[in-house]
Amino acid sequence: MSKHYYPTIFIPDEELGGFGVIVPDLPGCFSQGDNLLEATKYAASAIDCWLDGTDENDYPKPSKINEIDTSEYNQEYPNLFVNIVEYDPKDFKHNQTDEYAENYSEGQPAMSL
After folding, report:
1. What distance in Å separates the CA atoms of residue 29 and residue 51, rounded to the nearest whole number?
2. Is 49 exposed, middle or buried (0-12, 13-18, 19+ CB in 10 A)?
3. Cα dist. 39→9, 32, 65, 72, 97 in Å?
4. Model confidence at 112, in pLDDT bands (50, 70, 90)?
5. For residues 92 and 18, what is the distance between their CA atoms, to the nearest angstrom?
6. pLDDT given for residue 10 in this prediction
7. 16-to-11, 52, 62 alpha-carbon distances in Å
8. Which of 68, 18, 24 is nearest to 46 (CA)?
9. What is the Cα Rg of the chain in Å?
10. In sequence order, what are the beta bridge partners of 85?
11. Are 6 and 26 in contact (CB under 8 A)?
């Protein structure tokens, strides 16, 4: 297993704080976090969920960061930005331990840091 790098749109929440995140290369893949670090971690967790059950050879190829079209969001979210989120399948456990199930049921990202 190798690391994968997906460009991700980060949308600051001006009213409540935190960030929403969208991974355009994975339709429907989104998350949020109370700060930039948390949003990045949760984005990696969302990527893991989206790719779960997919052979690594069949993962969608990430776009180049300068190919990401943010025009759909620019007017409503003028402070958005695009950054790369690293996804390493080895950081995530799938049904291997009770710890994963416990973390998942508590709404925590299922990752080993």
Report:
1. 10
2. middle
3. 11, 5, 18, 21, 25
4. very low
5. 24
6. 98
7. 12, 31, 30
8. 24
9. 14
10. 6
11. yes
CB atoms under 10 Å from CB of 96, counted, come to 9
Residue 94, pLDDT score: 58
Cα 63 → chain centroid: 14
2-19 pLDDT, tens digit per residue, is: 999 999 999 999 888 999
Record the tokens describing residue 22, joined without a space. 């969208």
pLDDT score, position 73 = 94
3-state secondary structure labels for all residues of the chain: CCCEEEEEEEEECCCCCCEEEECCCCCCCEEEECCHHHHHHHHHHHHHHHHCCCCHHHCCCCCCHHHCCCHHHHCCCCCCEEEEEEECHHHCCCCCCHHHHHHHHCCCCCCCC
Q: For residues 19 and 11, is the Cβ–Cβ distance under 8 A?
A: yes
Say which amino acid occupies 44: A
Lookup: tokens for 92 = 């995530």
């950054």: which residue's tokens? 83
